[in-house]
């Protein structure tokens, strides 16, 4: 088994790093600096978008963070992070919600774009408050995304919530803060952060 992880510590690769640490599998980190190397022909053979993260598992390339997370959960079933039959509907629903409507709403707001009522009918997320209120309501109904236990969906959705609270792109609401507190104590998350901090230092990005 070989698993190569292409990442930059100041990217969404942090989510995949957390996922890999939760899985507990062996992997090789291949750092990709921003700039010419990330847009090079060599790296575009891995991801034509010229973006990180990406993984290559036994020759199979996977890009897009939510897809990588779901793939890892299925490829390493012994970690117990894939959904059970009872959890599958919520797992998939909220994994894709975070990858689609929620991220689009957060990104557009951060860039200063607020859709008009008419534009909101076209936008998959409607408007920022609708998207944020939807995930807030769900996270108030159960301790984790798919129910009573932590799954890979919590790595992906949880990263959005943790980052949103840290950087102010999400409002500080009680359900978000309670959910973030449940995730913050995970040992795999701590290991992932330590490894990314070390990689940032190696790449001369410690103050970035």
The major sheet is characterized as: 4 strands, mixed
Percent of residues in β-strands = 5-15%
Q: Would you report the number of β strands? A: 4
Rg, rounded, reads: 17 Å
Mean pLDDT: 96
- Compressed to H and E, one letter per element, the order equals EHEHEEHHHHHHH
> What is the helix content?
40-55%
Helix/strand-derived class? alpha+beta
CATH topology of the largest domain: Glutathione S-transferase Yfyf (Class Pi), Chain A, domain 2
Low-pLDDT stretches = none
Distance between the amino and carboxyl termini: 34 Å
| Count of helical regions | 9
CATH architecture term of the largest domain: Up-down Bundle
> What is the number of domains?
2
Describe the protein.
The model has no long low-confidence stretch (mean pLDDT 96). The chain folds into two domains: 3-80, 3-Layer(aba) Sandwich (Glutaredoxin), CATH 3.40.30.10; 88-188, Glutathione S-transferase Yfyf (Class Pi), Chain A, domain 2, CATH 1.20.1050. The longest helix has 23 residues, at 88-110. It is globular, with a radius of gyration of 17 Å. The chain has 208 residues and is of the alpha+beta class. It has a four-stranded mixed beta sheet, with helices on one face. Helix 1 links the parallel strand 1 (3-7) and strand 2. It contains nine helices and four strands; from the N terminus they run E-H-E-H-E-E-H-H-H-H-H-H-H. The protein has helices spanning 13-23, 41-44, 65-75, 88-110, 117-122, 128-139, 152-167, 174-184, 187-202, and strands spanning 3-7, 28-31, 54-57, 60-63.
């Amino acid at each position: 088994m070989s698993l190569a992880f292409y990442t930059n510590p100041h990217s969404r690769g942090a989510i995949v790093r957390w996922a890999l640490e939760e899985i507990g599998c062996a992997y090789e980190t291949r750092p990709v600096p921003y700039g010419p190397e990330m847009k090079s022909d060599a790296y575009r053979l891995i991801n034509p978008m010229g973006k990180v993260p990406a993984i290559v598992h036994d020759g199979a390339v996977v890009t897009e963070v939510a897809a990588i997370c779901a793939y890892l959960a299925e490829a390493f079933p012994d970690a117990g992070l894939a959904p059970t039959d009872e959890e599958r509907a919520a797992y998939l629903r909220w994994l894709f919600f975070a990858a689609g409507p929620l991220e689009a709403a957060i990104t557009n707001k951060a860039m200063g774009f607020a859709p008009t009522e008419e534009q909101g009918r076209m936008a998959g997320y409607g408007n920022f408050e609708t998207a944020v209120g939807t995930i807030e309501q769900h996270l108030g109904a159960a301790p984790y995304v798919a129910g009573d236990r932590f799954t890979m969906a919590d790595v992906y959705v949880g990263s959005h919530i943790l980052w949103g609270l840290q950087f102010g792109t999400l409002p500080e609401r009680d359900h978000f803060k309670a959910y973030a507190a449940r995730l913050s104590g995970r040992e795999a998350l701590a290991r992932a952060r330590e490894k990314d901090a070390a990689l940032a230092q190696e790449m001369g990005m410690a103050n970035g």
